[in-house]
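Narrative of activities, Objective 1.

The group set out to show that a structural description can be obtained from nothing but a protein's sequence at a throughput compatible with the screening campaign. Below is one input-output pair from the validation batch, recorded exactly as produced.
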Amino acid sequence: MDENELLKKYNSLYLEIIMKYRGDIEEHESLYIAELPRLVTPQDGVVKGLADTILGRFPGYRYDDNFYDAAKAAFSHVRDAISTVSLPVQFWLSPAQTINYSAGDVFDKAVLLCSLLVAMGNASSKVMVAAGESERRILVYFELGNRVIALDLEKGSINEARDKNELLRSIGVRETTESDLSVYEFNDKMYVDIA
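Output recorded for this entry:
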């Protein structure tokens, strides 16, 4: 039996085991929504190492002059170097695990990107999740000067808004009407329900 066939058999066996114990795994992986800040780890050595590598692309790095371009470089790295995978169970990866495995779901990638942005000096960086019955949007955004920059890993886009209300409107949250979306944001220091 060649190596690829053996690998396929192992993967099938591992998937069978995971599915058999899915309930137990998810029970131990449960995390209250207000505990989400624990997932953002800008001080982790692996995260700091990647942040330093990205900042190293900017000789004489100065936050005021270079952060926006460094943030775009971090976004590109997470978008392109980290494979998007969907696991059959709810499982939280730490940013260091996402880096080490070069894989994670969109949520894991957003948490990694937020961790990198905070590690690179922007404490306003947050993960924003808007979830409805049939959809879920995950963005990372940060404030820079009088702008709000939204990084959308799913769409691969970077958008700018005048303020947070404009950003919320762009994802379907209206100030004057009831929204069917539940919206929350978090980083390593805070968690807030928005809508």
